Amino acid sequence: MPTLRICLLISILSVVTSGVWATDTDINLAPVIGILAIPSEYTEYDPSEWNYLAASYPKYIEAAGARVVPVQWDLPHDNLTQILHSLNGFLITGGSSAFADPTNSSKLTPFGQTLEIIINEVIKMNDNGTHFPLWGTCMGFQAIVCIIAGQSSGNYACLRQTEGFVKVSKNISLYNVSREGGMYAELLPEVESALNNQAITYFNAHFLVKPDIWTSNPGLTNNFTLLACTNESSGNGTLPVAIAGKKYPIFASQFHPEKPQVEWVPKQNIPHSYEAILSGQMYATFFVNEARKNFNSFNNTGINIDSLLIGNYDIVELDTASFNYIYFFKRAQSSPTVSIRILASSEMSISEY
User: Rounded distance, CA 177 to CA 10, Å?
Assistant: First the structure.
């Protein structure tokens, strides 16, 4: 595969930190990460009754030294906020649930409203002096981008159907600012070479963020640094695929750093090279280290943290799934309904559950 073209540096973007970032001497040695359980996408577990979480995400985070609490997306909002203030960081996974209302792009679906509450609460905690990191993977990347862009523009529909990013590994290249710190600060030369030339970064997405929004939307230009990009399959330009907050510890990747280490489903074409494993571990270690700067806890909530950990739940194997193992959870509430993105000939269409 040819070497990825060098990404154009967008000079207005730079790495900026704020006073909420903790010092290296402030370390929580027992961080707890919340991971969002999203609407089921499997016929065996009806989304009107079930939420799910791919087991690869907890494995990935636990291997980096954190404990994991699954957090259901349909919790009452007061309960969700309370849990967020007891966690040390939060991860929004990949998935197919729609967050923009398909009939009115100025509105969010109930699922999107939950995501917005999480994002807003993370920003509020950091504004109040509590370092709280947020990570979004694939759909999580899209949700963070589209919601913050939508808060600025009034339009949450920032995705387009894109060919060439389903079950495929690609080269990525770093913007120059990526080397100044953050998730790529400890990048080994041999891993960077593999990122550029050996297609070790795994994508599985039918929809991607529209390219023009990165420079036209002030919510994005003011709040995010672009860290890495990949070529469009058409060969016409590049697409940002990794970002970091300028003001807040909010990070996201369009690709799946968790899969090379822990997913072995046939026909998924997931890379498992030494460099692919090191790359995935780099992202997880970085994020968990950010969570170590947070000292929230469940100590004064009356809740026993051990009763919430992912190890209390059974895993399920499904022949139809793109994951080896999945956790399913009975929905916290029977309503609201959820929307799942499905492919159409041109625009996305929605199935309601």
Answer: 9
Question: Which tokens sit at 127?
Answer: 């504004």
**16 within some domain:** no
Give dist(CA 141, CA 35) in Å, integer: 14
| φ, ψ dihedrals at 329, nearest 5° | -130, 135
Model confidence over 216-241: pLDDT tens digits?
A: 999 999 999 999 999 988 777 899 99
Compute how many other C-beta atoms are within 10 angstroms of the C-beta atom of residue 317: 10
pLDDT, tens digit (0-9, with 9 covering 90-100), for 87-104: 999 999 999 999 999 999
- Beta-strand pair 339-342/349-352: antiparallel
Read off the pLDDT of residues 188-210 as tens digits, 9 standing for 90 and up.
Answer: 999 999 999 999 999 999 999 99
Identify whether the C-beta of residue 324 lies closer than 8 Å to the C-beta of residue 317.
yes
CATH code, domain with 122: 3.40.50.880
Total residues found in the chain within this entry: 353
User: Which structural domain, as residue segments, surrounds residue 96?
Assistant: 32-352
Distance between alpha carbon 58 and the CA centroid of its chain, in Å?
Answer: 13
d(CA 121, CA 249): 13
* Token pair 């953050």: residue: 182
Burial class of 234 by CB neighbour count within 10 A (0 to 12, 13 to 18, 19+): exposed
Main-chain dihedrals φ then ψ at residue 290, nearest 5 degrees: -65, -40
Q: What is the DSSP string of 29-83?
A: SS-EEEEEEEE--BTTB-TTTEEEEETHHHHHHHHTT-EEEEEETTS-HHHHHHH
113 located within any domain: yes
pTM: 0.89
> Which one-letter amino acid corresponds to residue 227?
L
Dist CA 281 CA 269 (whole Å): 19
Instruction: Over range 159-173, report the average pLDDT.
Output: 95
The residues near 344 (Cβ < 8 Å, ≥ 6 apart) are 161
